[in-house]
Amino acid sequence: MEVGHQPVMPDEVLGTLAPQPGSLQIDATVGGGGHTERILEAASPDGRVLGLDADGAAVERVGRRLSRFGDRLVLRQANFSELAEVAPAAGFGAVDGMLFDLGLSSFQLADTDRGFGFRAGGPLDMRFDTSRGVPAAELLATLNADELAALFRRYGEEPASWRIAKAIVAARSTTAVGTAEELAALVERVVPANPRLRRRTHPATRVFQALRIAVNGELDALVAGLAAAVDLLRPGGRLVVLSYHSLEDRIVKQFLNAERRGCICPPEAPVCVCGHSPRLRLVTRPSLTPSEAEIDANPRARSARLRAAERLAA
Ligand SMILES: C[S@@+](CC[C@H](N)C(=O)[O-])C[C@H]1O[C@@H](n2cnc3c(N)ncnc32)[C@H](O)[C@@H]1O
Question: At 2, is the pLDDT very low, low, confident or very high (cuts 50, 70, 90)?
Answer without folding.
Answer: very low
